[in-house]
Specification:
- By secondary structure, the protein is of the alpha+beta class.
- Among the domains are: about 90 residues, conserved putative lor/sdh protein from methanococcus maripaludis s2 fold (Beta Barrel), CATH 2.40.420.20; about 80 residues, Efflux pump adaptor protein, beta barrel domain (Elongation Factor Tu (Ef-tu), domain 3); about 70 residues, Helix Hairpins, CATH 1.10.287.
- It is built from 3 helices and 23 strands.
- β13 and β14 form a beta hairpin.
- The N terminus is likely disordered.
């Protein structure tokens, strides 16, 4: 019982102390909605394909066929610049007889190796029997075994040569690795092609990249995943894309940092080589404005920021701590998130307050 009374007395004493505490004199400011003009940086950009490759034959030979498409006049013609090619379409192939001869020669070598291996195996089995009855010396037995093993290696080499020849035969057909547009054709029917000589250039433009360079002072305005508006002269409404690449090194020619923005191009309105413009930065916008002097360290998170909101509680004014996000600084004010227009924040003396402290507003 005495403990309960003591606790009650302590509680009464604490409550009396709280009630008798003198309010802290503070100055307040009202949260307002401010307007910022914003800053826009405009850059010229180029449209490039999402993927572009040069297609080459792996072996030399004469071009005996080029894929045919129907032209605007209704007649068939060789596929060329501007034509669309589906994935795995055979764009051209070289004379097959030359490569087929290589396959036949490789297959004949394999058959020969198999025959030699069969004979070597028979000789080795005979040597094993003779050696077990001591009718064959150890060197003769070892020689027979080595010959047998050597023919096994010859077979493996012949099989590898045959697989390579068959692969070369498959590569006699030059196929589109993905669906896209032919940008260039550098071969004609009857042309003699060599390995690594470009035959076609194909590009996938179902998605395109908008590439531009920004100087070092503008790099803070660009981040991966950022949505950016792209303007083109032939498109009425701006397009939207996301930043997918920011170079870590400046271009040595103009000292700018290359940036890539990926844009969906399913309707294929954007073509490689087009010129576009991009805008970085924010346009005019509104924000919640408070004086810089009102910002204090957050009580719950020392590394975060907060403010003291003046509220009425049981007929008295008290300061309530609230965490905020600071988005920008403008002279003596700050753009913040976490407050509402019309709320009053402590602008003078906030550093002396704790959550729940009574306050007295002074001019």
């Amino acid at each position: 019982m005495s403990l309960c009374i003591g606790a009650m007395l302590c509680g009464c004493h604490h409550e009396s102390k709280m009630i008798s505490r003198e309010p802290t004199a503070v100055r307040v400011a009202t949260v307002t909605v401010a307007e910022a003009s914003g800053e826009r940086l405009r850059y010229s950009a180029s449209i490039v394909p999402d993927a572009q490759v040069d297609l080459t034959f792996r072996t030399s030979g004469y071009v005996t066929n080029v894929a045919q498409v129907r032209g605007g006049d209704g007649r068939l013609r060789d596929i060329g610049s501007g034509d669309y090619a589906e994935q795995d379409l055979t764009l051209a192939h070289i004379r097959r007889e030359d490569v087929q001869n290589e396959v036949a020669q490789a297959r004949a070598q394999l058959d020969k190796a198999v025959a030699q291996h069969t004979r070597a195996e028979q000789d080795f089995r005979r040597a094993e029997v003779l050696y077990s009855t001591q009718s064959l010396t150890k060197p003769e037995y070892d020689e027979s075994q080595e010959a047998f093993r050597a023919t096994q290696a010859v077979i493996e080499n012949a099989r590898a040569a045959l697989r390579q020849a068959e692969l070369t035969l498959q590569d006699a057909d030059l196929k589109a690795p993905f669906s896209g547009y032919i940008l260039n054709r550098k071969i004609e029917l009857g042309s003699l092609v060599a390995p690594s000589t470009p035959a076609f250039t194909i590009a996938d433009i179902s998605r395109v990249k908008v590439t531009f360079g920004v100087p070092d002072y503008a790099l803070p305005k660009v981040r991966l995943g950022q949505e950016i508006k792209i303007e083109l002269g032939n498109v009425a409404a701006p397009l939207k894309g996301r930043v997918t690449s920011i170079s870590t090194a400046a271009d040595t020619r103009d000292r700018t940092f290359p940036v890539e923005v990926s844009v969906n191009n399913r309707d294929r309105h954007l073509k490689p080589g087009m010129i576009a413009s991009v805008n970085l930065g924010e346009g005019p916008h509104s924000f919640m404005s408070i004086p810089l002097s009102a910002i204090v360290a957050s009580e719950s998170e020392p590394e975060a920021f907060g403010v003291m909101i003046v509220e009425e509680h049981k007929g008295a004014l008290v300061a309530k701590s609230r965490k905020i996000q600071v988005s920008a600084i403008y002279d003596n004010s700050a753009a913040v998130d976490g407050v509402q227009p019309g709320e009053r924040v402590v602008s003078g003396g906030a550093q002396l307050l704790k959550d729940g402290d009574p306050v007295q507003v002074i001019p």
